[in-house]
Structures are given as structure tokens and as C-alpha cells.
Amino acid sequence: MKQDYLLPSPPPPAIREAMAKAVQRKEKGLDVCDFSSGNIGNLMVSQHVFSQMDVSVSDSVLPDLRAVVEGLRDGLVAAYYPTPQAVAYSPTGGTDPIRALVARYYRELHGVPISDEASDKVIVTAGGQQAMTAALRSIKPGTRVLVPQWEYAPASGVIRAHGLEEVRVAMKDDLSIDMDDFRGKATHASVCYVSMPNNPTGYMSAEQLRDMVKVMVANEGALVWDAPYLLTLLRLDGKTASFDAKLLQETLNALRELGEEYHQHMCILSSLSKSCLIAGLRFGFAYGSTQWVDNMEAIVGRENLSSPTPSFIAGKEILRRFLDQPKSYEWVCRVLANRLNILIEETGPHLILPGNGLFGALYVLVSTGNQPCKPFADRLIEESGIVTVACNQFYGGEAHAVRLSLVSVPWTESEEGWIASVKALKSALS
């Protein structure tokens, strides 16, 4: 398939290619005489530097989070015991066994018809942010990139810095995309970047995402779908948020059908950060055409000769358990629903919420009325110690809203910290 919007596939860096071949032979149990790189950590890899390493999972761990915690435990141990694997270089985009799990993730959650062996179509990255950056930098400079008016701020910075033409698309009062404006701005071999569920608005619509992909296909272009919030989806009924497992399953089914039909025209970015509560672990991944992944691998490889080895080892174990027992996101959604309900009850008139009955992601927009958002956010922190994010960069222009995170406050069973923070916000807003 012709992909005029992508840079040509570059030759792989010689060192990275040699290192990857050495690792692949070792994984297959073949003999290796490795002279490839300055991988000085390998001098210790055959040594038993720790006589014992025992990490026990607490009995108090919440049942829905137990698989995640057990994966983190096994990853910690495997990184350093019985030998210290984590002190050596590891392939930039992940080993074949890790990529096989990522392929399974895209097959099962996104409907992409990909085999475990298709390592040329997936890549593992140091977090979803690196996946997003590499995906956008793989596009040819000068390419027209459509971006919703409300969108994840760092994406805009990457688009502009890479010499792409950013074109903001209007959104309606219910926070949906204005599809007439979208169709009018899509041109031949253009690309669209969209997070869905959207950061920062929380807007989610499988139907609208399908419409956007169809427009891009008609223009022989592509869509970059940033999807780390795929499983943090709530029902929003009037002034009440709730986790509805049936609704989530219906949405996932619609998205799987979309992925199966249009995967060749998409680059799909994701991460376990949000569904498994491991944002600090820096473990993201992406699916795309071989040419797209080649570009991403070259970009990441030029900046990082090796992967973040301990994160990838732990991430592999957590991903495996998540695919076998996907439960952690249900607990996350229940926490999000409870926190959003408390926020709506205390500050409802100030919130900007989607109008289609669905709410995703981890953030809420708070209206600043007629006040510019930057001085408003500055006053909140200076006068009340309340930290929010001004939204000018998310909006692509002067915005009258700040972004509020639903997860920065640590969780406790009675949510005293969250309630106190919301009441302080209510007082400051009034």
C-alpha cells in the first residue's frame, strides 16, 4: 500500500542491527560470538551477584490489582536475579518475545489481524509519549496533519517542531468533532492525530473515530490513534458517572471491528500506564505498517542505543498477566467514577463534560469563565495551593479552561484526600 505521507524507511543503524541479531540468536538457543557493541554490562551477566532475592506480595493487595503487582514482582526479580540482566543493553524496540505479547494486545483489544511473529509491525517504547513522538516524526515534513481543537498538548509541539503543517479542526459544544470541518480540511496524503478517549476533554465515540478514519482513507492518508485510555471509560448519565462493564464491552467490540477493517491505514499507540497504574514504569508500544515501524525504530534507536531494560522486563511480565487476567482497569474505572461524582456534586457548574453520555481518560476541563486560563491557574496555586494545568497548548490558542487530573491525589478507601482537595477547589472557584 502506498504511504506518501511517511518518510522512506531508513537503513537500520549498524550497531543496533548487530545487537538485535545477537539477542535473537541467544533467544533461539543458537551459539553466539558477540563482538557487536560496548555492552559492558554483559561482563556481569553470567555472575550471581545476589545470593538471594525474595519479593513477597502483601496479603492486603486489592484483588483486582493482584495480577499487576505479581507481574511487577516477577519483573523486578527477573531483572536482577539469578543474574543481573538489567545492567546490559537490550534491543531498542523490545525483544521478539515482548513484541509477540504486544502483537497479542493489538489483536485482542484492537482487532488487528496480526500474528505473534509479526515483529516488524509493532514496537515497544519507553512510555506512550515516546511512541507518540516517534510516530509523528516518522511522517514526511510538510505533510498536513489534522488535529482536533482540543487535543493532547505535546503532540502539537512535536508536529510543529518536525516541520509538519498543523491544522486544527473545530469541535462542537458537546466536544465532538465537527465532521464537516474535518472533511473540508482533509487533503490528499494528509494525516490525522487524535487521542480517543480524548485528553483533555474525556470525549469518546467509536462511531466518530470510524468516520474520521474513512475520511483519511478516502484521501489516501492515515490516522494516528493515541489510545492509552482505551479501558478507562465511564457512562455519564446527567450528573452521575458510573462504570458500566456492558457499555465498555460494546465500545471495545466496535473498536475491534474498526481495527480489523482499517488497521492498514492507522498507527495505533498505547500503553499499560493507565489500565495497570504503572505510568512511572515507562512501557508503551505501537502498531503500524512495516515502513512506519521502521521509521519509529530508527528514531528511537538514534536517541537511545538500548531500551530501558528493567522497565521492559517488568512491563513484559505485567502485560502477560494483564492479557491473561484483564481486571485492573475495572477497579480504576470504579475509582474514576466515584471521584468524578464527588467533583460533579461539588463543582458541577464549572465543569466542561462530553455531551454524548460517555466519559474517558483521566482528566476534566474546568471552565474559567471569561478569564484567560494561564493567570487563572497561576492564581489558584499562588492563593490556594491548587495545581491545575492551563489549557492554551491543549486548545491550540487562547483557552478559557484548566485541566484537572482525577488521579494525582493518592487513593485511600474513604478518599479523604480527594474530598479535601475537591472542597478546596470549590472554595477557590467560588
Structure description:
The protein is α/β, with parallel strands linked by helices. It has two domains: 96-324, Aspartate Aminotransferase, domain 2, CATH 3.40.640.10; 328-429, Aspartate Aminotransferase, domain 1 (Alpha-Beta Complex). The chain contains 14 helices and 14 strands. It has a seven-stranded mixed β-sheet with strand order 1-9-8-5-4-2-3, sandwiched between helices. Helix 2 runs antiparallel to helix 10 (309-324). The longest helix is centred in the C-terminal third of the chain and has 20 residues, at 328-347. The protein starts with 13 loop residues before the first helix and ends with a helix.
Question: What's this, in brief?
Answer:
The protein is α/β, with parallel strands linked by helices. It contains 14 helices and 14 strands.
**End-to-end C-alpha gap:** 56 Å
Q: Averaging pLDDT over every residue, what do you get?
A: 94
Tell me the radius of gyration. Answer: 22 Å
CATH T-level fold name of the largest domain: Aspartate Aminotransferase, domain 2
Oligomer: single chain
The class by helix and strand makeup works out as alpha/beta
- What is the CATH C-level name of the largest domain? Alpha Beta
Number of strands: 14
Flag low-confidence runs: none
Helix content percent band:
40-55%
